[in-house]
Every structure is written in C-alpha cells, then in structure tokens.
Amino acid sequence: MDEDKSPPVVLLGKWKKEELRLELAPAKTIRDVKAHVSAFTGIEPHRLKLAGLGGHGKPAADDVCVGDLPPKAVHKFMVVGTKESDVFVDPKNVAELPVVFADFDCAFAPASKQWRSAKENSLALSTIVAQAQIHAMHPPRRGKKLLVLDLDHTLMDISATKDNGIPSSRFMRPHMHTFLAAVWAHFDVCIWSQTSWRWIEIKLTELGMLTTPDYRINFILDKTNMFSCSPLDNKARRTKVKALEIIWRHFPGVWDARNTVHVDDLRHNFALNPLNGIPIRRYDCAEASAPADAELLHLAVYLVEVVAPAVDVTQLPHDGWESHREKRTK
C-alpha cells in the first residue's frame, strides 16, 4: 500500500461528552489509535477498549492496520477505560483493615447453616468487589437513579443469530430503542449480561447502542462480574447471580439500594437484592407473537411514572408492576 498516495482513514471517537477526530495513514495500527486516544483522555493504553472498531463481529487487535478495517467513510467508536487515578482500590485490600462480617442485620441464628452461608457470601463478595473493574463510558448524572438491564431475553434474543430460519431482525426486542430513550431522561443505565465483554460489545455496536444520540450506556458489566452465591435455603448448589453491591461500592455516595433497580428475566439474579428486582417476561424471538411484544413500552411507563419519582425504590411492589400494562407511552 502506497502510504503517500492513499487517502487517510477517518476515525471519530466519543469519550464522555467529547469527540476525538483522527485522520491516520492506512498503515497506522489500532495501537497507534490507542496512543492518540491515551494522549487525549489520559487513560493508559492497556486500560483502553475502542468499542466499535473491528470487523466480522470481532474487535480489532492492536496490530491491525486501520487501512484494513471494513471500508467506511468514518469509523465511529466509543472509548471505554478508566484513568489510573480513578481505579477503585477497596480498603479491604489493605492489611491493616481486615475483612469483618457484619451480622447485625442477619436474620439467622449465629453459627446456623444459613448464617454461615451469609458470612461466606459477605466475605466472598468483598473479594469480588476488590477485583472488579468498572469502566465508565459516561459519568453518573446528578440526581439520576440507576437502571441495571439484563441483555439476553430481556432486551434481545441471541438465538436469532443461529441457523434456525428466524430473521436476525427479530433478535432485538420490539421498541428497545424507544424504551431506552424514554428511561434515559430519568435513569443512568448499566447493561449487565452473563456473557463475555467481547460478545456484548459486538451486539451493542451492531445495534448502534453505543453511538446513538438518543441515550447513553454509562457502563457495562459482563460474566466476570457475576457472583457465585452460596445458597441460604436448602438448595445444594451455588448460583451465579448479579450482586448490586458490586456497583454500589464502586460508586459510593452515588447509588445504593434506595435508588437502583434491576430488570431481568431470571428471578434468581435478584437473590442478593430482591427488593431492587423488576421481573420481566422472557423475550423469545422464535415465538409467533414476538413481533407484537410490547413489554418494554409498558415497563417504560412504570419506570418513568412510578420508580423515577420514588424516594426509596425498595418500598415499591415491583412484582406487581405489570398492573401498568394497559398504559402506553406517549
């Protein structure tokens, strides 16, 4: 490739509310892009993810030349990463501060099987919190509650991508973009999926969820943030759940049990935070009724009219939110 005669590759990155436009020679690599982004944001290259740069459903590796990216007039991407100064350091990692199980509010008798399970969960969760990395793509907005959204069978159904005769256009739940735009005015948004970050990035990029001007995704959590919960009842096996405490401890003074709600089609994911869970009907794109699904429209009404103005979301009867099903967003 003749670098002198070839036109530059144009890349447009978004970081928080700022944009970075780059015009690079085709022979430059993704590593070079990260160097420019690092200088612009102050985020070390090893902590950077450039969501949206890649092809064939995979993010581009550092040694890929920008000239080898799929042909586009402008390559748009989202900057994901955390500055070294903002990397969370849990005080429980400090030797002088031993981890203590606070059982003052524990409803079980000391030394009982349930008490031991609760203690095990508490100590294990402290370790997970210390190890977890949350890369905020957009900072929290003052006064906004947090909406934690599951992905598969809540916002979409990945089975449509398989060779089963179902058009890929049906894998996104109807009204998804309308729903996210409606709730964004009242909530900051986290996507939490029990799969890999790479898969999440691919799907959110394909749907334009990371670059749309209608709403923002504040941060994304993947399967590495799932918590293996020791059962408090008679169940014999541990269960992977989504522990909201991981988020709350990373954003002290911003979000807590009173201003966070979690929408999921799997109720067991609410195990550690049952008063914050809003169950949603499972979306299955293979069902004949899938194109007529209006669950997200009904949920938007409930979130905006009932949850958003609430002082403490744990005082709401989320199990009965479907009584708002007859309402419609305007």
From TrEMBL:
Q: Which InterPro entries match?
A: FCP1_dom, HAD-like_sf, HAD-SF_hydro_IIID, HAD_sf, Ubiquitin-like_domsf, UBLCP1
Give an example GO biological process: regulation of proteasome assembly
Major localisation: nucleus
Q: What is this protein called?
A: FCP1 homology domain-containing protein
Compartments, record wording: Nucleus
Recorded GO MF terms: phosphoprotein phosphatase activity
User: Per the record, what is one GO cellular component?
Assistant: nucleus
Instruction: Please give the Pfam families that the UniProt record associates with this protein.
Output: NIF
Which keywords are on file for this protein? Answer: Hydrolase, Nucleus
The FCP1 homology domain covers 140-306
Q: Which Gene3D superfamilies match?
A: HAD superfamily/HAD-like, Phosphatidylinositol 3-kinase Catalytic Subunit, Chain A, domain 1
NCBIfam families, from UniProt? HAD_IIID1
What's the source species' lineage? Eukaryota, Sar, Stramenopiles, Oomycota, Saprolegniomycetes
